[in-house]
């Protein structure tokens, strides 16, 4: 028996569980794209798969809706692959291990992929149905949204004729999103020079138990960032002692606030007692500062036993890495002056890895103001110049600007009130949505974004509200049914 059997809406959860069994990480979408291609073709629907693995499935209008402009239902097929370090799981070959916890669906030890698997499940259910009234539909399921939106970037807009678009990729029921930030990714590589080991003791410093979260949705909550905490710890040590850095690693995704990190250093035996005092002091301060946002944080230091490293980073490299990490911008940089409570500009230092080419820092920059995004990017680039690092800017995507003349916004508000008895909110979001890119590809298309309640996305604590899925599903059906009266 399937784990989600008996949940309502039944078909939505059937398809959600079905796609949860298919590996679909960002840039690993071959299997899910083929599944979606076969889904459309097996039902006799006009189905397109492009070179970026995007899928478009078209379905004719039901009787009485033939004259309504086509509606695009849009989401992305990929998910963030994130797991706890103590979880044994092969994302590339295993299906997610779903479980039910009260009103929530979770995955055991990993991300759930409700972002954005629930949009895929909604779309498949509508395509599979014969009794849902709707105008002509164009289902657009994009690839690689989570690591740069390259699927949306590669999309040929001429393949779509829809004049209205429902993006089902937000995480708060009852909120209609009408604007989002733009963003880009940066890579910052500090060259490394190694030398023979001289100092005689080796210690691993580990950070665990941070809450993490989505680097757009939760950045304003001021949760601890393991990569910045490692920089702070190393700075406190290097201010008092001579050490050599051997390796430093933390985080796994630029769009997830990093929860865990590890540092390996060498230190003189005579300095071990002082090292312990420094770690105790800085740990005490960090735990106090994060007692509300990250009550579960643990900072531990253990002596390395067994084979000792034969080489370490030289003093100059060690200090360059430490000082760069300490100064690297992170978190909320500016709040919006137009919309109360909205983050305007932020940076998430999401990943640090030690590789043969150097110590690599990867970041996600977000802003609803293009000039502010460019300025923050230039600040990081300038830090690279000062520290002798190599700077690269990766994928960049535009902001989705508010449309004051949107028909869809008015319809969404009125139908929500009729459907639920509650007034919906109109909001902008600091996270990136594909609506920014799609509004460039489809310049005459009116768009909104909405979705069910989900929490802690991009972390192994991700959970999806079962009751909220049913509420938003019914709202989506009401939007489609009422379209002939509004559009």
Radius of gyration: 24 Å
What is the quaternary state of this protein? single chain
How many helices in DSSP terms? 11
Largest beta-sheet characterization: 6 strands, mixed
How is the largest sheet built, in terms of strand order?
A: 1-2-6-3-7-23
Q: Give the DSSP E fraction (strand runs of 2 or more residues).
A: 25-35%
Compute the average pLDDT.
95
Kindly identify the CATH topology of the largest domain: Aminopeptidase
- Terminal Cα separation, in Å? 42 Å
CATH class of the largest domain: Alpha Beta
Number of domains: 2
Tell me the name of the CATH homologous superfamily of the largest domain.
Answer: Zn peptidases
Which shape, going by the Cα principal axes? elongated
Please give a structural write-up.
The chain is of the alpha+beta class and 487 residues long. The protein has two domains: 10-181 and 399-486, Zn peptidases (Aminopeptidase), CATH 3.40.630.10; 184-397, Alpha-Beta Plaits. It contains eleven helices and 25 strands. The strands form seven sheets. The protein has a six-stranded mixed β-sheet with strand order 1-2-6-3-7-23, with helices on one face. A five-stranded antiparallel β-sheet has the order 18-19-20-9-21. A four-stranded antiparallel β-sheet has the order 4-5-25-24. Strand 19 (343-355) and strand 20 (358-367) form a beta hairpin. Helix 1 (10-20) packs across helix 3 and helix 5 (226-238) crosses helix 7. It is elongated.
């Amino acid at each position: 028996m399937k784990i989600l059997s008996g949940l309502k809406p039944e078909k939505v959860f059937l398809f959600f569980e079905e796609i949860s069994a298919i590996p679909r990480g960002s840039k690993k979408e071959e299997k899910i794209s083929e599944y979606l291609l076969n889904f459309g073709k097996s039902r006799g629907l006009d189905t397109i798969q492009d070179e970026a693995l995007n899928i478009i499935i078209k379905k004719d209008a039901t009787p009485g809706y033939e004259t309504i402009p086509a509606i695009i239902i849009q989401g992305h097929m990929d998910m963030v692959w994130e797991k706890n370090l103590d979880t044994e799981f092969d994302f590339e070959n295993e299906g997610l291990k779903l479980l039910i916890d009260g009103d929530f669906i979770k995955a055991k030890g990993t991300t759930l992929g409700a972002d954005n698997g629930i949009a895929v499940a909604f779309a498949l259910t509508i395509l599979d149905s014969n009794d849902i009234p709707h105008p002509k539909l164009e289902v657009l399921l994009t690839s690689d949204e989570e690591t740069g939106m390259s699927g949306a970037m590669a999309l040929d807009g001429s393949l779509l004729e829809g004049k209205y678009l429902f993006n089902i990729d937000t995480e708060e029921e009852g909120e209609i999103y009408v604007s989002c930030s733009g963003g880009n990714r940066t890579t910052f590589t500090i060259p490394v020079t190694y030398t023979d080991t001289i100092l005689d003791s080796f210690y691993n410093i580990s950070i665990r138990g941070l809450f993490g979260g989505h680097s757009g949705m939760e950045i304003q909550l001021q949760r601890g960032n393991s990569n910045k905490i490692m920089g702070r710890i190393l700075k406190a040590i290097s201010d008092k002692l001579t050490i050599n850095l051997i390796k430093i690693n933390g985080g796994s995704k630029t769009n997830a606030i990093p929860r865990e990190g590890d540092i390996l250093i060498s230190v003189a035996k005579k300095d071990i007692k002082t090292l312990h005092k420094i770690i105790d002091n800085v740990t005490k301060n960090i735990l106090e500062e994060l007692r509300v946002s990250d009550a579960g944080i643990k900072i531990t230091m253990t002596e390395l036993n067994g084979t000792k490293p034969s080489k370490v980073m030289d003093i100059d490299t060690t200090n360059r890495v430490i000082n760069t990490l300490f100064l690297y911008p992170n978190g909320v940089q500016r709040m919006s002056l137009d919309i109360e409570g909205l983050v305007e500009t932020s940076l998430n230092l999401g990943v640090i890895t030690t590789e043969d080419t150097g110590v690599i820092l990867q970041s996600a920059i977000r802003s609803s103001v293009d000039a502010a995004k460019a300025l923050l990017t230039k600040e990081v680039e300038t830090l690279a110049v000062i520290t002798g690092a190599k700077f690269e800017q990766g994928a960049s995507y535009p902001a989705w600007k508010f449309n004051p003349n949107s028909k869809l916004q008015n319809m969404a508000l009125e139908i929500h009130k009729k459907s639920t008895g509650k007034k919906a909110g109109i909001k902008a979001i600091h996270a990136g949505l594909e609506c920014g890119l799609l509004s460039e590809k489809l310049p005459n298309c009116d768009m909104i974004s909405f979705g069910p309640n989900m929490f802690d996305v991009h972390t192994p604590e991700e959970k999806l509200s079962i009751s909220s899925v049913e509420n938003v599903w019914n709202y989506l059906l009401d939007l489609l049914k009422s379209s002939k009266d509004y559009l």
